[in-house]
Design brief:
By secondary structure, the chain is an alpha+beta fold. The chain has one domain (3-139). It has helices spanning 3-23, 26-34, 94-109, 111-139, and strands at residues 42-57, 65-79, 84-90. A three-stranded antiparallel β-sheet has the order 1-2-3. The longest helix is centred in the C-terminal third of the chain and has 29 residues, at 111-139. It is elongated and about 90 Å long. It starts with a helix and ends in a 15-residue tail after the last helix.
Length: 154
């Protein structure tokens, strides 16, 4: 890969990791943080702060519209060696946002360890939950079809 390709790949991988961290259950993230053996020193740079964001929607191919507001909590941390981590999480859980930001910063320090011990298990759990939800939804699917009736002569 060329240097720009590598940077784009790293950015995409970080975005995916941050999405998994943000979407994880707070209790699961807390358990992963509690199990992290080499906790670094850190300080809060920003937050945790809770606010509102506008959620936009689109139906079909139509124009976007404002669907409503969602509560979001954000946090930014700086590790003792200078790595900075960010997190935005739906809801009001400041601890979850800080822990997600810590894993984001730690991933910059030791990507393989964070990916192996945190991101990979969260990805497997997310895929299993998605599969379960698809199976539950498929069980309620109703197939509709149209029968064409012809008039009998007469």
């Amino acid at each position: 890969m060329t240097e720009p390709d590598t940077a784009a790949h790293d950015q995409k991988a970080r975005r995916g990791a941050m999405a998994l961290l943000a979407g994880a259950e707070a209790t699961r993230l807390a358990a992963l943080w509690a199990g992290w053996t080499d906790k670094p020193g850190y300080r809060l740079v920003r937050g945790p702060e809770t606010g509102l964001v506008m959620v936009r929607g689109r139906t079909g191919g139509g124009d976007p519209f404002n669907l409503g507001e969602a509560t979001v909590t954000r946090a930014t941390v700086r590790l003792d060696r200078g790595e900075i981590g960010h997190a935005y999480c739906l809801g009001r859980d400041g601890d979850k946002a800080v822990q997600a930001a810590l894993f984001d910063a730690l991933r910059q320090r030791d990507r393989d360890a964070v990916d192996g011990k945190v991101i990979a298990p969260l990805r497997v759990e997310r895929e299993a939950a998605d599969r379960r939800r698809r199976d539950e939804t498929a069980a309620t699917k109703v197939d509709f079809f149209t029968m064409v009736r012809t008039r009998s002569p007469g």
